[in-house]
Amino acid sequence: MGEMEVPGDALYGASTQRAVLNFPISGQPFPRRFLRAMALVKRAAAETNGALGLLDDDLVEAIAAAAQQVADGAHDRHFPLDVYQTGSGTSTNTNFNEVIARLASQRLGGRPVHPNDDVNRCQSSNDTVPTAMQLAGALAVDAELLPALEELRAALAAKSDEFWPIVKTGRTHLQDATPIRLGQEFRGYAGQVEEAIRRATAARDELLVVPLGGTAVGTGLNAHPEYPGRACRRLAELTGLAVRETDNHFHAQASLDAVVAAHGGLRSVALGLWKIASDIRLMAMGPRAGIAELGLPETQPGSSIMPGKVNPVIVESLTMVVARVVGNDVTIGFAQTGSLLELNVMMPVAAVALLESATLLAASARNLATRTVAGLTATERGPQLVEQGLMLATALAPVIGYDEAAKLAKEAFRSGRTIRELALERGIERDRLDELLDLATMTEPGLRDQPAPG
Prior knowledge:
Strand order of the largest sheet: 1-2
CATH topology of the largest domain: Fumarase C, Chain A, domain 2
């Protein structure tokens, strides 16, 4: 394609420079975690090729050491390519081959190291890029998201224990319902995060079945037959994750199924966090004119005009993250439409969306745990309101019947009196009424006395 001027201090070569000029789109390079994963793929490839006798020991050592330097972040500025580039990520694969070849050559005292023949041996962009994408996503979930979710689960469980003695009004349809313990609500939130951890773990595991070794179209052309399995085992050793070769290379690199499925799990996690955070925001409405059953920790002034105002800013931050994750899910779903015949050609944007979601969810889950949940306090308002609740009539329904209990509830609402007062006037003995309207008992399973026959 003719001569190409490359910056004198660049470790990459002409092919990368052409891509730099071809894609002046966003100025957004691949994130650090993707660069690390791709470099580890190159290291595993070199070491596997050495074990198979395809590269000599000196060359293997030089390429592997250079790849590890890249994995560790020593040369990030030499990976300048825009995310919005070749749909297969070929430009970035070439960038890696050129940089690692240059670094390896320097380690060998100037001995030539070929980007394609040596660094890219037994590989194609079409199997290394999706492998790096999946590996990066799995590493992000394992190292960032899962620990953050566990931190949030523990914080919610601790609040459940702390709030267990507090009985308040339950709400369904945002309307008053039967009593519930504040601790039971938080037990529900902790359980939701337990499920989020399960789904995030499944998403990680979905990504660990990789297409490495399929080369151009899944046939493995120009790759040693033992290369895929050995390279995957080496990646497992390097990452500590259960990386394994796909059973069907033709499927694995012709579609984004694994990424679509994994990100679907992350979307579920995100929307679960939205529910928890939004419930906390609702219960903290106030502090005078709202529900105000929870007190938020004061993180920062809430208004430039209203002194003393405290806003649920950590919750608001999280809900914006959820919006981004849901948008990323749409992006990844649409990227599947780039799966044409033997290759998907929208991999770079899918990779960035996947990594952004995992990273943002991890940061916001940890932030919610430390800056909101840990500092939540229960107010007196919950216990104060529950005695006035109309749905206490539900506890009387098995004794006086549904219709009579409904009349009591309507009369209590009309008159502003309590269910307890009206039930006493109806003739239910005080001791019996205290037993029926025991708030703690109403938060547990059980049947009340049935009305007498007839």
